[in-house]
């Protein structure tokens, strides 16, 4: 059953001229609009809360470097395995940085999923948030053709 008072809505769900003159229809429209705004606010808060709690731990292929990054991509924890003394400082530094980048990429993927599941990416705002979060966390991608995989684990 449809509400005949809401049938007088115009383009984009905005009340048409007849509905604006009908106080009951205008109140129904305002109530529905407020419900949509309340849902957007609740979804946005849920997204924000989930993003703030997010952190990722990543371990390099050799198992000798483990990093944890927080929701902003900042390094929270760094762990080295007991064989790390056998590795040159240059290789170790590159491995740490590569592992941080991998953790930040995984974090960006998870953050984008949270955005999609809470506010959705079907709106311009949702797409913008997901894009900006991904760009902030991923940073410049590693150029694997130039660096190759030059880790010297033994």
Features:
154 residues; 10% strand; 3-stranded antiparallel β-sheet; mainly alpha; Ybab, Chain: A; rod-shaped
Please explain how this structure is put together.
The chain has 154 residues and is mainly alpha-helical. It has a single domain, classed as Nucleoid-associated protein YbaB-like domain (Ybab, Chain: A). 55% of the residues lie in helices and 10% in strands. The protein has five helices and three strands, in the order ααβββααα. The protein has helices at residues 17-21, 23-53, 89-118, 124-138, 144-147, and strands spanning 56-59, 65-69, 75-80. Strands 1-2-3 form a three-stranded antiparallel beta sheet, covered by helices on one side. A hairpin with a 5-residue loop joins strand 1 and strand 2. Helix 2 packs antiparallel against helix 3 (89-118) and helix 3 (89-118) packs antiparallel against helix 4. The radius of gyration is 25 Å and the shape is rod-shaped. Residues 142-154 have low confidence and may be disordered.
């Amino acid at each position: 059953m449809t509400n005949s008072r809401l049938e007088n809505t115009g383009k984009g769900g905005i009340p048409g001229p007849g509905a604006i003159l009908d106080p009951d229809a205008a109140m129904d429209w305002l109530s529905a609009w407020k419900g949509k705004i309340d849902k957007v606010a609740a979804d946005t808060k849920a997204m924000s809360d989930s993003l703030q709690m997010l952190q990722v731990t990543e371990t390099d292929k050799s198992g000798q470097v483990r990093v944890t990054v927080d929701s902003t991509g900042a390094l929270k924890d760094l762990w080295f395995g007991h064989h790390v003394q056998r590795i040159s400082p240059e290789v170790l530094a590159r491995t740490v940085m590569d592992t941080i980048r991998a953790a930040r990429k995984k974090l960006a993927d998870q953050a984008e999923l949270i955005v999609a599941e809470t506010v959705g990416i079907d709106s311009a705002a949702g797409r913008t948030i997901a894009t900006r979060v991904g760009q902030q966390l991923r940073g410049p991608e590693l150029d694997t053709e130039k660096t190759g995989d030059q880790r010297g684990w033994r």
